[in-house]
Design a protein that fits this description.
Shape: elongated
Number of helices: 22
Number of strands: 10
Distance between the termini: 58 Å
Strand content: 5-15%
Helix content: 40-55%
Strand order of the largest sheet: 1-4
Length: 493
């Protein structure tokens, strides 16, 4: 019963998070937007005390079931291991805890997080690792399948599906995602939970609590026949059947060993001194209690998803532009500052996949690897859209209202005379001024003393919010005549 309940809850969490990361319509966040917020590291960074406390208590009571129910990377490893066992008929065996590797990795992770070295945090964080796999590897396949269905629908005059542009946001991010998938996939195929119990810092942190959990998988030495079936089924390699012991720091409470034991020598229970001496029929209430508590683990928060306002397109397609070199990268409204983004962002890329305007993409510099930055060659940051702030689970992009966003300055526009069409060939334009949503751009004569002088843009930096509408809609190619320079710290205008 324990194993079946765990599988059902794990499937719900895994499918929900995966659909959220694959979603390009912005609708899934209404239903499963709470799931990323119950990931342990993201809850810690977001200072979500309730979620952290509940997860800690659940681990102290029931062991590391977080890793086999809530964490999508852990569930992905279980899926790969399940397939591997059936294809290769592989059996597991007991191995000692690699403390020399686990705790230095955890120490490195904590130190990197404190120092703001985002690249180390992004590479080791489990939810972030699965996020980049889903965003960079799975989402393009998902979109391609959607586009095939959209083509079929159009043939039959149906609008059930619509085309979604498939494009590469970052080659470096894709490469890292593929390497992550291969490394974790091979480890899971060959050894089950090898990555989880040797590298993952979240798993190691939870192991410090699970050692003292009340409910554990325990041996009844009198019933054990030393058949080793429990050890062969344990993907965490934590069951030493010869000495009748289970390493609770690595056990993820999956229940596989309980099902494999044919002699009833293993049971998931309290210590002997705390067990109630009752007849066998008392097992049914125990199972229901486990079901209730496991259900609580998957529903540790009741965060209500807020409605996201979609943007309508309707703008003519523009040719690709060359990206400007910004002295200061742009971070989304709600991130407060570049330092806040660097400290809190885990690089899960949920905001990147959910951005309806295709403005966000992963950074490639080593200190801020895979954290979101803004570019405007495919769209601009519309003042009425705050979707990224609604889905961020780590507090790197804090919730911001439409009104506050429209008055938050993340950067300012800069005019480049040598690229401006009116300045170089005297043609009439004014596209940037017409489309500025805050009217921060005014067209003025290039030469104030000449009445026939062409009109060029003048930027009111105090009014500009850095949304990028001017940069996106500037017709100059390959370099825009106006671009947005980022600010280290955001402010209201």
């Amino acid at each position: 019963m324990l194993r079946k309940i765990r599988i059902v809850l794990a499937v719900v969490m895994f499918v929900g998070i995966t659909l959220l990361l694959l979603d390009f319509s912005g609708t899934m966040s209404h239903y499963v937007g709470w799931m990323p917020r119950v990931q342990l590291l993201e809850a810690v960074l977001a200072l979500n005390v309730v979620v952290v406390a509940v997860l800690a208590v659940l681990t102290l009571v029931f062991g590391r079931m977080y890793c086999s129910v809530v964490c999508p990377l852990g569930v992905m490893q279980d899926i790969i291991a399940w397939v591997g066992r059936r294809v290769s008929k592989r059996r597991y065996s007991y191995s000692k805890e690699l403390r020399w590797l686990r705790y230095p990795v955890l120490a490195l992770f904590v130190l990197a997080a404190l120092l703001g070295i985002g690249s180390v945090v992004q590479l080791l964080a489990p939810y972030s690792a699965y996020g980049r796999i889903a965003a960079n590897v799975l989402q393009p396949l998902w979109q391609t399948g959607n586009n095939v269905l959209a083509g079929i629908s159009e043939y039959y005059d149906s609008y059930m599906f619509y085309h979604s542009e498939v494009w590469l946001r970052s080659l470096a991010s894709l490469a890292i995602a593929l390497v992550t998938l291969v490394v974790i996939g091979v480890l899971a195929w060959r050894g089950g939970r090898t990555y989880c119990n040797t590298v993952c810092p979240v798993g190691t942190a939870l192991s410090l609590l699970s050692r003292f959990s009340l409910f554990k998988v325990r041996f009844d030495a009198e019933k054990c026949r030393n058949c080793s079936m429990c050890s062969k089924q344990c993907k965490a390699a934590c069951i030493d059947y010869k000495n009748h012991s289970v390493d609770a720091s690595r056990c993820v409470t999956c229940g596989d060993c309980l099902e494999a034991c044919r002699f009833g020598a293993l049971k998931y229970s309290l210590p002997k001194g705390k067990e109630k001496k009752e007849e066998k029929p008392a097992e049914a209430p125990d199972s229901s209690r486990r079901a209730f508590m496991l259900g609580t683990a998957a529903l540790v928060t009741t965060a209500m998803a807020q409605e996201a306002k979609k943007t309508d397109g309707g703008l003519a397609e523009l040719e690709d532009k060359a990206l400007p070199v910004r002295q200061t990268p742009l971070t989304p409204p709600g991130s407060l500052s570049a330092s806040n983004m660097a400290r809190r962002c885990t690089g899960c890329q949920l905001c990147v996949t959910e951005c309806p305007n295709q403005v966000l993409r992963p950074q490639t510099d080593l200190l801020h690897l895979m954290q979101p930055t803004m570019q405007f060659e495919r769209g601009y940051c519309r003042p009425e859209c705050n979707h990224c702030s609604e889905v961020c689970p780590a507090g790197a992009i804090k919730p911001i209202s439409h009104e506050a966003k429209a008055s938050t300055q993340i950067g300012h526009a800069v005019w480049i005379k040598k690229n401006c069409l009116p300045a170089i060939d005297g043609t009439s334009c004014g596209n940037c001024a017409r489309h500025c949503p805050v009217e921060a751009i005014e067209m003025v004569p290039l030469n104030a003393d000449d009445d026939t002088s062409p009109m060029v843009p003048a930027v009111n930096e105090a009014r500009c919010i850095g949304c990028g509408a001017c940069e996106y809609l500037c017709p100059a190619r390959p370099f825009s005549a106006i671009y947005v320079e980022g600010h280290e710290v955001h402010k209201e205008v």
